[in-house]
Amino acid sequence: MTVHKIKLQKEFAIAVLIGDKTFEVRYNDRGYQKGDQIVFDVRDGSFPINHPLNDKTYEITYVLNGWGIKEDYVVFGIREVKPNE
Predict the structure, then answer these.
(1) Are 18 and 73 contacting, i.e. CB atoms less than 8 angstroms apart?
(2) Fewer beta carbons under 10 A from the terminal one: N or C of the chain?
(3) Which range of residues forms the domain containing residue 42?
(4) Contact at 8 Å (CB) between 4 and 38?
């Protein structure tokens, strides 16, 4: 299992935090795999901001490539990892 720290623009952070956005579309330069974990670094443009999402960890639940997804990109499902898991 790999932990990926990835940047996320603030426009998307609330949707992830409240559970409306349960996926990410990313260039697959990291070899994302099911079971890997994601820690978001919320940004306003190129500047990091203090945001409650920064303190949470998410698990990749599913990885999709091919099937109409642009070459070298993936779509992966995420779910929050609760502190006692």
Answers:
(1) no
(2) C
(3) 3-81
(4) yes
Question: What is the domain count for the chain?
Answer: 1
How would you classify the pairing of strands 73-81 and 57-64? Answer: antiparallel
Q: What is the Cα–Cα distance from 71 to 50, expressed in whole angstroms?
A: 33
Report the amino acid identity of residue 3.
Answer: V
pLDDT tens per residue, range 11-66 = 999 999 999 999 999 999 999 999 999 999 999 999 999 999 998 999 999 999 99
Domain of 54: which CATH number? 2.30.130.30
Tell me the CA end-to-end span of the chain in Å, nearest whole number.
15
Choose among 45, 39, 55: nearest CA to 10. 45
